[in-house]
């Protein structure tokens, strides 16, 4: 793309108008900054707030309610034109409906914005600094102020602040893993080594890190024009799939809207053919729509999801997109990184070999002692070498921290050894001080060993101690004896054989093995004053005494094996995708249970049966370790075959690009895929996945941007807790929806019977809204706090095509059984109220037209009394209130039965979920306030109600409870029966 | 199949349950008086004839067809007050509440049509419509157990002064207390509620004009006539427009 890597320094100076020694002038830099913009990646374009807001206003049921509102206004207009007496009722109804839409819309928008804000605050990072030469001076500048042509200096540990062409380098190495996925550091120099700018050594890329050395370079690309920037913008091109819960809710909305519209239209036709006026029919239609639409439900769902999101955030899963909460629950495959996610991301001593025996060390996160046998004098010698032949040091001032948490200056292996020694021996720095170092040869790649010579703290022994560690085979070469139980014994072939076996065994476990040897220098040859010279090596470096081996590994997090086995019982396949070496990857996979103890790969079988790999029946192998190189040459079918046929898969040596291929492969199997990632190059895979999980600690901004979720502690186990929460919320949303849908029938039946039997209206539209948006809200949210009925991690992930949120059984059971029971109960109350005031049920049938006639003010009841219109209306409102109260009372029973779907309420515990009780009390409290507090506000159509009417529906409420217990009993008793199939939702 | 059977049984059960609870509820009710009467503590007023749509009378005094409906309504309404229908009714003591709490068979008081004078329809078969003095009967809604206090009477006023002269039958629009209380349809089958006829002698200058009349019940402290919301509680407003 660019050929800056081919240009010479002076050509570069000319091209960018800069000077290597003086840098740009501040004025010039400001000019370029104004032209190119700051050196930072543009975050993915956010949907404009207004669009988000409008979406909330028309999404879900809002359209239906808008239609209802418009119809109300139309009928208001018509009535006004006809000069009817009370046209304003319809105007108000329309306004109320519009308000409902707007308020629930604002609420949903607010919820959404709140959860986005959590994320936004999190993604703000501490600004990066860069060392720049400008105006011939070195300056620290925020990295986003860099411009093309700036001369920057970098050193080990820095993040490369932009794409730079190196012009000076001293032992500079960079870690390009976020770009290429290869974790081996690559050296960087000023030489043009490759035509391809991505391969050449003299360019360092934005957002990669400089591991060691120093370098100076010219900035050649900034911000979105950097290589990483171009990849990041590519990631935003990968489309976002609809989340499973969004699909479920859409399905549910269609279902309910379908029911609403068809019943509405059906009864519109019926009422027209029953010679109702068109205007009346339209008003009925509005009532039916309002009764059918669960106005409060979508808000409830949002609240439930955000409650879960909060709960998950406490467990270190930060959810960016509310709907992702449930997606995680339906996950069937998790593609997990190894380093840092499954492992602790730090080298730790795992095994020791001395006295011809392998010892295991404790690798847990919070080790304070080591349990292996430390009585052998060989261990004393080995520990001395480990302690002394080590350049790593603790940063000062951390004495109070646990050893494992202390920060160490030094490389990974030496850190591991230092901590290991500190745990066992105590104050290592003190030991080193007492065994003064007189000479040292640091580790280098040519001799592959590290050596140091010390005075000893034994005042009777004036000999110097030479200690050495390094690659085991190189160390062994230099030894002629080996220490067994503290005694030096000649190193014969038998002992060398034992060493080989141990070395192979440790290496086979994917561990990095180091050998340790020592030599006490004879006092006569090396007196106190002997001038050790490391250049001429005037001391022996062969015929040493071999003491032992130590092997190190980045050990799995202690919580991970448990989490993996949980996944296994939950039917979730865990696939490890790592850039590491296959042997290490497999060893970790085995130790965490991704490859279970009994399963074998094709290679394992071949080895066991002693036959070539090609002859192994591939079906027999449950596990597979796939190398990235093999993956490169695989066709899609071959990949599918691997994903299909093996239940335990490890992808090793894979690049982040291959991750995307793996994710797509899993999705082709119909799986809901969760993917973890941290590098910039993971972002396409994170986007493509059904749920992308970025690492909070190790993750790059780009990964966090692309992900749906951020794992604050980078721990795999947190994903599993998230899955658990996700599954629970799916179950609980089911309960919430079942609870909410039920009373829709009790709200709808009055309209239907009113139209057909021409009785006085049993319940008003406004009253319905008070149930949907008043009494029912807190209880339906309370169901989100319900505990799981059984171990939800013991069943398979839901099949997104079959296991719907709202299935036929749920709708039928809620609508046609419990809903009808509620209606019956409410109608009994309604008829009771009218009968006790003088209108027996027989009198009520067919009275609608006269009842509603404003001119009839001597309407005769069953006892010969005469009623004015207003007196009738007031009675009608009392009827509304009674109907309302009955529904509320029966909804209490409905709430209790919805706590479980299969278990008895008594198994679940009536009082375990306290929030349910808050819900019940709020429900009754709101009803009391509406009835007795607002009973005198005419516009609300509530009237104070005789106390006994609260209890008319109680037997029906009890019946609902008993009936549901019976239903659950049969479901538990006869699994798979006709009853189970039809009654379990 | 099984599903249909299930719902048949299920709904059958619910229907039975509904019927049963309704039956139980109805058993608790008396057939004589409703359990509660608090929603109609005070009676409304109503007139006869009652024009179809709104309470507005439009007629031409020289066109019999234009008021035929009013006349026939009145005639029909007064049929039950005919002497022949009142043979079982007794003559009560005027001016006193006629308490019959202890009597099993409640008697009805006789209401003589002659009390309605010119509006009885006996002398003038057109109830004054042909003469420009239309009659409107005002009645008070029946409420079981209602015992008016004081001396209830109907008084009508016209907003427009001097357009109409109002005469009452019985005189001063009095409603006699002897017609109260009412014991309900089943106990008090022959009960006739007292009527007040209001004759509107429309000033000949005021023909073609719409005259708004409001009638109220006065003179009784326990009969409300000022309710904000209920425009028919103890009062009634109607309009009359007569052409020639």
From TrEMBL, chain A:
- GO-annotated biological processes: intracellular potassium ion homeostasis; intracellular sodium ion homeostasis; potassium ion import across plasma membrane; proton transmembrane transport; sodium ion export across plasma membrane
Q: Mind listing the GO molecular function terms for this protein? A: ATP binding; ATP hydrolysis activity; metal ion binding; P-type sodium:potassium-exchanging transporter activity
Cellular compartments per GO CC: plasma membrane
Q: Which domain of life is it from?
A: Eukaryota
Indicate the transmembrane segments per the record.
58-79, 91-110, 252-276, 282-305, 737-757, 763-785, 810-833, 877-896, 916-935, 947-963
What's the protein's topology in the membrane? Multi-pass membrane protein
Q: Which compartments is it annotated to reside in?
A: Cell membrane; Membrane
**Which Pfam families does the UniProt record give?**
Cation_ATPase, Cation_ATPase_C, Cation_ATPase_N, E1-E2_ATPase, Hydrolase_3
- Is-annotated flag, keyword Ribosomal protein? no
Signal sequence region: none
Q: CDD domains, per this entry?
A: P-type_ATPase_Na-K_like (cd02608)
> What keywords would UniProt list here?
ATP-binding, Hydrogen ion transport, Ion transport, Magnesium, Membrane, Metal-binding, Nucleotide-binding, Phosphoprotein, Potassium, Potassium transport, Translocase, Transmembrane, Transmembrane helix, Transport
Boundaries of every Cation-transporting P-type ATPase N-terminal domain copy: 3-77
Q: Which PANTHER family match?
A: POTASSIUM-TRANSPORTING ATPASE ALPHA CHAIN 2, SODIUM/POTASSIUM-TRANSPORTING ATPASE SUBUNIT ALPHA
Can you tell me which family this protein belongs to? Belongs to the cation transport ATPase (P-type) (TC 3.A.3) family. Type IIC subfamily.
How is this protein named in the record?
A: Sodium/potassium-transporting ATPase subunit alpha
Q: Which organism is it from?
A: Gavia stellata
Automatic annotation (TrEMBL), chain B:
Q: Which UniProt keywords apply?
A: Cell membrane, Disulfide bond, Glycoprotein, Ion transport, Membrane, Potassium, Potassium transport, Signal-anchor, Sodium, Sodium transport, Sodium/potassium transport, Transmembrane, Transmembrane helix, Transport
Q: Which Pfam families match?
A: Na_K-ATPase (PF00287)
Q: Which GO terms describe its cellular component?
A: sodium:potassium-exchanging ATPase complex
Topology relative to the lipid bilayer, per the entry, is: Single-pass type II membrane protein
PROSITE patterns xref list? ATPASE_NA_K_BETA_2
Instruction: Give the molecular function GO annotations.
Output: ATPase activator activity
Q: Tell me which Gene Ontology terms the entry assigns under biological process.
A: intracellular potassium ion homeostasis; intracellular sodium ion homeostasis; potassium ion import across plasma membrane; sodium ion export across plasma membrane
TM region(s), chain numbering: 6-26
Q: Where in the cell is it found?
A: Cell membrane; Membrane
The record's comment on protein family reads: Belongs to the X(+)/potassium ATPases subunit beta family.
Q: NCBIfam families under this entry?
A: Na_K_ATPase_bet
> What function does this protein fulfil?
This is the non-catalytic component of the active enzyme, which catalyzes the hydrolysis of ATP coupled with the exchange of Na(+) and K(+) ions across the plasma membrane. The exact function of the beta-3 subunit is not known.
This one is known as: Sodium/potassium-transporting ATPase subunit beta
């Amino acid at each position: 793309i660019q050929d800056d890597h081919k240009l010479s320094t002076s050509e570069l100076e000319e091209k960018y108008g800069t000077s290597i020694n003086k840098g740009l002038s501040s004025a010039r830099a400001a000019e370029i900054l104004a032209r190119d913009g700051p050196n930072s990646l543009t975050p993915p374009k956010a949907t404009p707030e207004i669009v988000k807001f409008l979406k909330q206003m028309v999404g879900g049921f809002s359209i239906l309610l808008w239609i209802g509102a418009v119809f109300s206004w139309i009928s208001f207009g018509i009535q006004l034109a006809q000069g009817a007496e009370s046209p304003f009722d319809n105007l108000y109804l329309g306004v109320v409906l519009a308000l409902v839409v707007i308020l629930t819309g604002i609420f949903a928008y607010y919820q959404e914005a709140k959860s986005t804000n959590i994320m936004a605050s999190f993604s703000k990072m501490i600004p990066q600094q860069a060392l720049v030469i400008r105006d011939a001076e070195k300056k620290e500048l925020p990295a986003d102020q860099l411009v093309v042509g700036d001369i920057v200096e970098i050193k080990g540990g820095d993040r490369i602040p932009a794409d730079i062409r190196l012009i000076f380098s001293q032992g500079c190495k960079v870690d390009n893993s976020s770009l290429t996925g290869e974790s081996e550091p690559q050296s960087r120099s000023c030489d043009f080594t490759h035509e391809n700018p991505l391969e050449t050594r003299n360019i360092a890329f934005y957002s990669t890190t400089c591991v060691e050395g120093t370098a100076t370079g010219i900035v050649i690309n900034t911000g979105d024009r950097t290589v990483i920037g171009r990849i990041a913008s590519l990631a935003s091109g990968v489309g976002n799939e609809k989340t499973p819960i969004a699909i479920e809710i859409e399905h549910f909305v269609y279902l309910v809207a379908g029911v609403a519209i068809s019943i509405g239209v059906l009864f519109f036709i019926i009422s027209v053919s029953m010679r109702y006026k068109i205007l009346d029919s339209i008003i009925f239609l509005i009532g039916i729509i309002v009764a059918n639409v669960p106005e409060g439900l979508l808000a409830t769902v949002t609240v439930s999801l955000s409650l879960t999101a909060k709960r998950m955030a406490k467990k270190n899963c930060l959810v960016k997109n509310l709907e992702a909460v449930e997606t995680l629950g339906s996950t069937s495959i998790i593609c997990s990184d190894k380093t840092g996610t499954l492992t602790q991301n730090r080298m730790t001593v795992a095994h020791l070999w001395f006295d011809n025996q392998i010892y295991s060390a404790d690798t847990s996160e919070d080790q304070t002692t080591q349990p292996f046998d430390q009585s052998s004098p060989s261990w004393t010698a080995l520990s001395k070498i480990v302690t002394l032949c080590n350049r790593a040091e603790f940063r000062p001032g951390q004495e109070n921290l646990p050893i494992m948490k202390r920060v160490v200056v030094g490389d990974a292996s030496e850190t591991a050894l230092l901590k290991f020694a500190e745990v066992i021996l105590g104050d290592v720095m003190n030991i080193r001080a007492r065994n003064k170092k007189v000479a040292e040869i640091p580790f280098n790649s040519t001799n592959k060993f590290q050596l140091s010579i010390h005075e000893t703290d034994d005042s009777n022994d004036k000999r110097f101690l030479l200690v050495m560690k390094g690659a085991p085979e190189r160390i062994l070469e230099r030894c002629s004896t080996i220490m067994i139980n503290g005694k030096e014994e000649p190193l014969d072939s038998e002992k060398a054989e034992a060493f080989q076996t141990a070395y192979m065994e440790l290496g086979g476990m994917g561990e990095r093995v180091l050998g340790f040897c020592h030599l006490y220098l004879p006092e006569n040859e090396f007196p106190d004053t002997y001038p050790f010279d490391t250049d001429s090596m005037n001391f022996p470096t062969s015929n040493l005494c071999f003491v032992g081996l130590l092997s190190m590994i980045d050990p799995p997090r202690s919580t991970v094996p448990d989490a993996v086995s949980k996944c296994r019982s939950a039917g979730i396949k865990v696939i490890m995708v790592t850039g590491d070496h296959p042997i290490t990857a497999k060893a970790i996979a085995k130790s965490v249970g991704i490859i279970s103890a009994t399963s074998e790969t094709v290679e394992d079988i071949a080895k066991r049966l002693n036959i070539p790999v090609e002859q192994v029946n591939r079906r027999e192998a449950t596990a597979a370790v796939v190398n990235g190189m093999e993956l490169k040459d695989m066709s899609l079918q071959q990949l599918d075959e691997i994903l299909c046929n093996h239940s335990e898969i490890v992808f090793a040596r894979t690049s982040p690009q291959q991750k995307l291929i793996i994710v797509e492969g899993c999705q082709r199997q119909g799986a809901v895929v969760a993917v973890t990632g941290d590098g910039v190059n993971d972002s396409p895979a994170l986007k493509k996945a059904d749920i992308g999980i970025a690492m909070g600690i190790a993750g790059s901004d780009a990964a966090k941007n692309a992900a749906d979720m951020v794992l604050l502690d980078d721990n795999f186990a947190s994903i599993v807790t998230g899955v658990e929460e996700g599954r629970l919320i799916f179950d609980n949303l089911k309960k919430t929806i079942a609870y909410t849908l039920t009373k829709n029938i009790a709200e709808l039946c009055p309209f239907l019977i009113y139209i057909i039997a021409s009785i006085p209206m049993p319940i008003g539209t406004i009253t319905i809204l008070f149930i949907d948006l008043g009494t029912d809200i807190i209880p339906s949210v309370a169901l989100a706090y319900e505990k799981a009925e059984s171990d939800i991690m013991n069943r398979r992930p839901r099949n997104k095509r079959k296991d719907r949120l709202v299935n036929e059984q749920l709708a039928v059971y809620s609508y046609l059984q419990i809903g009808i029971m509620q209606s019956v109960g409410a109608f009994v109350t309604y008829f009771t109220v009218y009968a006790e005031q003088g209108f027996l049920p027989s009198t009520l049938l067919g009275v609608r037209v006269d009842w509603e006639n404003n001119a009839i003010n001597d309407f005769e009841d069953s006892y010969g009394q005469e009623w004015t219109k207003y007196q009738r209306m007031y009675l009608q409102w009392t009827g509304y209130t009674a109907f309302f109260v009955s529904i509320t009372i029966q909804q209490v029973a409905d709430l209790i039965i919805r706590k479980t779907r299969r278990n008895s309420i008594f198994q679940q515990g009536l009082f375990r979920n306290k929030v349910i009780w808050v819900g019940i009390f709020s429900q009754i409290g709101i009803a009391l306030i509406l009835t007795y507090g607002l009973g005198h506000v005419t516009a609300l159509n509530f009237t104070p109600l005789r106390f006994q009417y609260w209890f008319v529906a109680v037997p029906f409420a009890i019946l609902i409870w008993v009936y549901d217990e019976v239903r659950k009993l049969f479901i538990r008793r006869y699994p798979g029966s006709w009853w189970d199939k039809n009654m379990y939702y | 199949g099984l599903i249909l059977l299930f719902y048949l049984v299920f709904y059958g059960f619910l229907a039975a349950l509904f019927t049963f609870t309704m039956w139980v509820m109805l058993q608790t009710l008396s057939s004589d008086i409703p359990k509660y009467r608090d929603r109609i503590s005070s009676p409304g007023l109503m007139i006869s004839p009652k024009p179809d749509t709104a309470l507005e009378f439009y007629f031409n005094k020289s066109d019999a067809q234009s008021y035929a409906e009013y006349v026939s309504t009145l005639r029909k309404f007064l049929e039950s007050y005919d002497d022949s229908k009142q043979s079982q009714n007794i003559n009560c003591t005027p001016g006193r509440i006629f308490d019959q709490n202890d009597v099993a068979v409640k008697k009805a008081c006789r209401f003589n049509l002659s009390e309605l004078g010119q509006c009885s329809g006996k002398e003038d078969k057109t109830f004054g419509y042909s003469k420009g003095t239309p009659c409107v009967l005002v009645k008070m809604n029946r409420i079981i157990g209602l015992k008016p206090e004081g001396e209830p009477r109907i008084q009508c006023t016209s907003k427009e002064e001097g357009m109409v002269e109002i005469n009452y039958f019985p005189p001063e629009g009095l409603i006699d207390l002897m017609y109260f209380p009412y014991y309900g349809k089943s106990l008090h089958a022959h009960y006739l509620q007292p009527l007040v006829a209001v004759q509107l002698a429309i000033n000949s200058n005021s023909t073609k004009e719409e005259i708004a009349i409001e009638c109220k019940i006065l003179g009784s402290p326990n009969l409300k006539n000022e309710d904000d919301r209920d425009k028919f509680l103890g009062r009634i407003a109607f309009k009359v427009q007569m052409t020639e």
